[in-house]
Design goal:
- It is a single chain.
- The protein is α/β, with parallel strands linked by helices.
- The chain has one domain: Vaccinia Virus protein VP39 (Rossmann fold, 3-Layer(aba) Sandwich), CATH 3.40.50.
- A 7-stranded mixed beta sheet has the order 3-2-1-4-5-7-6, with helices on both faces.
- Strand 2, helix 4 and strand 3 form a beta-alpha-beta unit.
- The radius of gyration is 18 Å and the shape is globular.
- The model has no long low-confidence stretch (mean pLDDT 88).
Amino acid sequence: MNHKDVEKSRYDSKANKALESGNFFSVNRLTQPLVAPYIAYQDFISDYADSNSSILEIGSGMGENTGFLLATGAKVCATDISKDSLNVMKNRFNTDRLITKVADIEKLPFEDASFDIIANAGSLSYGDSNTVLNEIYRVLKPGGVFIAVDSLNNNPIYRFNRYVHYLKGKRSLSVITRTPDLKLLRKYEGKFGQAENQFFGSISYLVPLLNAVFGEKITTKISDRIDGLVGVKRSAFKFVMVAEKKI
């Protein structure tokens, strides 16, 4: 089985369990110190999306981040390689502004310049980095924006943790080796001409311990303060990127 089949099988299994239990992941369930990049992601979506927008969400999963896209009033096309995950999403959201489509992020089944906004929350590592970049750019309209929140792979602590997940069978090797890094972000900047990046979570690996000692509120302040002091970038756990395609 190739890596895509492995990931598809894994997410199909998760989707079927979620559908049976009704227990769906939500960003709101994340511990408070880890929510900051998703808030920034949603803020950028709010800045650009309205009822006239067409949004393509890549790697949508079971709709963990799709609800917010729909809340803008935009028309959303949610895509994923897992058909079962998209079936879960259909059960979660009942609106004619949402369509779902099984799609590989390396071969998006859309014409050039089809969408005003392309949104990604954690799926850039599920395809060849250069191929995914070119596909995103191709189907985005001139003047459109690509908005992403994803993991960063420069911090050796986070790289080690992802490798442990691979050893436990929770990730495929191709996914952890394709996790975005600063070099890839520079490629997006070069392709689009410019890109705005924000970085979060230089001590996210300590959050469980700090939460137990200080509680989520104080831990959030500590984490945000350290990020500000060290100018978190290379040490970041997550990044948020906004790249606008030139007209």
